[in-house]
Amino acid sequence: MSEPRFGRAPEAPKRFYKDVSSEAADKGFVLTLDGKSARTPARAPLAAPTKALGEAVAAEWAGQGERIDRLAMPLTRLLTTAVDRGEPDGAAWRDLVLSFLASDLLCYRAESPEELIDRQNAAWTPYLNAFEARYGARLALAAGVVAVEQPERTLAAVGGRLQGLDALSLVAAKAATEITGSAVLGLAATLDGADAEETFAASRVDEAFQAEKWGIDGEAAAREAALKLDFVAACRFANLAR
Known about the structure:
With about 240 residues, this protein is α+β, with helices and mostly antiparallel strands. About 60% of the residues lie in helices and about 10% in strands. The strands form two sheets. Strands 1, 2, 3 and 4 form a four-stranded antiparallel β-sheet that branches. Helix 2 packs antiparallel against helix 4. It is globular and about 60 Å long.
């Protein structure tokens, strides 16, 4: 049988180390493999700002088998991104979160059926109320797909908070916002202590409703499970980094 047109997927690299630890250093808690400092792709030390995050990252490396599955190391991926890309890309990350806020999932409500409208209200109103309490501004809502413009003072308030975040908090907020399609939910879960699983479920109200009505699609369910794992990891990363 002939090979696939685009060839085989690259094989995961073999594990090249035995001992893993997180060592206190000038730049935080550095991952060490067989006593040597691990490096990011940009050759910076793979260092976490807190002992808790350093130990969690080390646990990901220690838990690898004969081959290294980087998809199974979400904390390592987030830390690497923050270390290597936080300075050049931080402004773009803030802009991305604000772009989601400008068209936030929670602001676009179904016009029917009533059951879905009620579910959206029940799931999303608490997050919007908490958002208003924190930022002193209410987001505008719309029915259907008609675009709604958000108040400039709201965007400015959130932008000011994002401006004060370090690279690790910002990369977690960015990831959570992208996964949920909502800056309100992403910020609530990564910065304000909202329960990660409950917040993710709130982002899937429409999908859950459709699955009840039309049945569960296997591929969609697998994709949702993967998104949930990444979302929970981003929230855990943010918490450990504080």
